[in-house]
Task: inverse folding
């Protein structure tokens, strides 16, 4: 079941949809975050956008199953961060001096950012 969350998002089957109002067409639009494989959708009502979200996710999962593919998950925990070579070098040097992995430094930095900005972490079993 999809529930409205803070920030105009919906959750369904571990997928997150961002809902926006499109004033030119006087409708709601939805797009599944991190999933370019799932096209965006529109509706005039909140209930309609929830239904379109469910349909888009279910259609994607069904298409994957019919092709024998495992459906992709939007948030795998892997990501690429682009920064300047100087920052990259400074962080790598710091990690080496602390005798920790570079990824641990990045996790710590992200954790501090989340704490400092009061960002709510979704309650999922894989967190």
Result:
């Amino acid at each position: 079941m999809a529930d409205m969350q803070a920030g105009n998002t919906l959750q369904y089957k571990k997928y997150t949809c961002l809902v926006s109002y499109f004033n030119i067409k006087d409708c709601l639009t939805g797009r599944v975050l991190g999933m370019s494989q799932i096209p965006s959708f529109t509706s005039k009502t909140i209930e309609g956008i929830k239904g379109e979200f469910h349909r888009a996710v279910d259609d994607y999962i069904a298409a994957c199953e019919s092709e024998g593919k495992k459906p992709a998950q939007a948030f795998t925990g892997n990501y690429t961060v682009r920064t300047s070579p100087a920052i990259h070098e400074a962080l790598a040097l710091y990690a080496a001096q602390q005798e920790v992995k570079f990824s641990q430094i990045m996790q710590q930095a992200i954790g501090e950012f989340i704490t400092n900005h009061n960002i709510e972490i979704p309650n999922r079993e894989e967190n």
